[in-house]
Amino acid sequence: MIEYRIGAWPWIAALGFRNPRNPDKPLWKCRGSLISARHVLTAAHCAHMDGIENIHNHNIAILTLMEEVPFS
Ranges for the Peptidase S1 domain (predicted)? Predict the structure, then answer.
């Protein structure tokens, strides 16, 4: 495990998903790169974990955030 301090890599995004067993504790299953104040670049399987979208036709996803992330 790599130790780091918060803010060491400000472009890294941790992607949390709703945990059906414990709604107050997200599942941190994916990571991504902050490419603008409102966009995260990640793997396609992180954006379509429910299986609705055929991830075999895609290899990246760009997530649009509801709010801008302040840059530090």
Answer: 3-49
Q: Which of 36, 42, 32 is nearest to 12 (CA)?
A: 32
Output Rg (C-alpha) for the chain, integer angstroms.
14
Range of the domain at 48: 12-64
Helix (H) or strand (E) holding 45: helix 44-47
pLDDT, one tens digit per residue, over 24-48 is 999 888 999 999 999 999 998 887 6
pTM of the entire structure?
0.72
Structural domains counted in the chain: 1
Check residue 46 and give its pLDDT. 84
- How far, in Å, CA of 1 to CA of 29, rounded? 16
Look at residue 71 and tell me if it is in a domain: no
* Dihedral angle, C-alpha 47, 51, 57, 62, nearest 10 °: -10
Residue 7 inside a domain? The answer is: no
